[in-house]
C-alpha cells in the first residue's frame, strides 16, 4: 500500500500544488480591485433632476425614440432619455426633448481621461497606444452603440460608449485572474466535456490518496528484529 500511496502522490502532486496556489490567490485577491474596478465619467456639471420636464410620453409621441426609455444622467450633466429608434441608439435631452449627438473622438477621449483620472489606479493605465471603433450592446439604450475602444501602454483596454458614456475596462490582469480560476477548477482544455472528465478522474484519486494515507497512518508498524535474529535469519537463508 505504501508504494501505491507514493504512486498516487506522484500523479497528484502537480494538480494539488496548483489548486493550493490558486486558492491562496483567491483569498489574497491581489489587485482584484484594480482588475474589476468600475470606471465612470464624472458629469461636467451638477445634475439637476428637477430639469427633467419632458415626459416619456412626449418623447415617444415625437417619434424620436421607441419604448422602453431609461432616464439617467448624461456625461454632460444633462438628464437624458436613453433608448433606441429602430435599431439605432438615441439619447434625448430630458429638458428640451432634443436629441443629444454621440460624442466625437475628442469628446470621447476627454470623458475617458476624466474617468481614469478619478481611478486610484490611474498610473497603471499608462498612455494610449492604439484605438479602434466597435459596436457593443448598451444596458441603457438596449441597442448596439458606437464605442471607442482604446488600448493603453498598461495592457488595459477601455471601451467608452459614445451615446451614453458607459465605460468598461479589462486587461492582461483580468486574463491572468481568469486563467487562475480555470487552473483551479481543472478547466485545462478548451473542451468542456474533457474538463468534466478530468474532474471525474481527479476526485476519486484524491479521495483514494487520502484513504491510503489514513490507512498507513493507522497501520501498526512491523516489529523490529534484534541483530542476532537478523543474523540467524541470514544464516538460515
Which characteristics define this entry?
three-stranded antiparallel beta sheet, four-stranded antiparallel beta sheet, about 45% helix, elongated, about 240 residues
In terms of topology, how is this protein built?
Elements (H helix, E strand, L loop, with lengths): L1 H27 L3 H4 L20 H7 L3 E8 L5 E7 L2 E6 L11 H13 L10 E10 L6 E9 L3 E6 L5 E5 H13 L7 H27 L8 H10 L1
Helix pairs in contact: 1-5, 1-6
Describe what this molecule looks like in 3D.
The chain has 237 residues and is an alpha+beta fold. The chain has two domains: 66 residues, no CATH class; 132 residues, no CATH class. It is built from seven helices and seven strands; from the N terminus they run αααβββαββββααα. The strands form two sheets. The chain has a four-stranded antiparallel sheet with strand order 4-5-6-7. A three-stranded antiparallel sheet has the order 1-2-3, covered by helices on one side. Strand 1 and strand 2 form a beta hairpin. The longest helix has 27 residues. It is elongated.
What are the secondary-structure elements, in order, as H or E?
A: HHHEEEHEEEEHHH
Q: Please indicate the count of domains.
A: 2
Rounded to the nearest angstrom, the distance between the terminal CA atoms is 27 Å
As a percent range, the share of strand residues is 15-25%
Gist of the model:
With 237 residues, the protein is α+β, with helices and mostly antiparallel strands. The chain has helices spanning 2-28, 32-35, 56-62, 105-117, 172-184, 192-218, 227-236; strands at 66-73, 79-85, 88-93, 128-137, 144-152, 156-161, 167-171. 43% of the residues lie in helices and 22% in strands.
Amino acid at each position: 500500500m505504501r508504494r501505491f500511496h507514493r504512486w498516487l502522490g506522484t500523479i497528484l502532486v502537480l494538480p494539488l500544488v496548483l489548486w493550493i496556489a490558486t486558492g491562496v490567490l483567491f483569498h489574497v485577491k491581489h489587485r482584484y480591485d484594480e482588475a474589476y474596478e468600475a470606471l465612470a465619467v464624472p458629469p461636467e456639471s451638477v445634475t439637476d433632476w428637477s430639469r427633467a420636464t419632458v415626459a416619456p410620453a412626449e418623447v415617444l409621441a415625437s417619434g424620436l425614440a421607441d419604448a422602453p426609455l431609461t432616464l439617467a444622467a448624461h456625461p454632460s450633466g444633462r438628464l437624458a432619455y436613453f433608448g433606441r429608434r429602430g435599431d439605432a441608439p438615441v439619447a434625448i435631452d430630458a429638458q428640451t426633448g432634443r436629441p443629444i449627438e454621440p460624442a466625437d473622438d475628442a469628446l470621447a477621449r476627454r470623458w475617458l481621461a476624466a474617468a481614469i483620472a478619478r481611478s486610484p489606479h490611474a498610473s497603471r493605465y499608462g498612455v494610449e497606444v492604439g484605438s479602434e471603433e466597435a459596436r457593443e450592446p448598451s444596458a441603457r439604450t438596449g441597442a448596439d452603440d458606437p464605442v471607442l475602444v482604446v488600448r493603453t501602454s498598461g495592457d488595459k483596454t477601455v471601451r467608452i460608449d459614445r451615446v451614453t458614456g458607459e465605460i468598461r475596462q479589462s486587461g492582461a490582469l483580468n486574463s491572468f485572474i481568469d486563467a487562475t480560476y480555470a487552473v483551479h477548477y481543472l478547466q485545462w482544455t478548451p473542451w468542456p466535456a474533457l474538463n468534466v472528465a478530468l474532474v471525474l478522474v481527479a476526485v476519486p484519486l484524491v479521495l483514494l490518496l487520502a484513504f491510503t494515507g489514513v490507512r498507513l497512518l493507522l497501520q501498526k508498524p512491523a516489529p523490529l528484529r534484534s541483530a542476532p535474529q537478523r543474523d540467524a535469519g541470514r544464516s538460515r537463508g
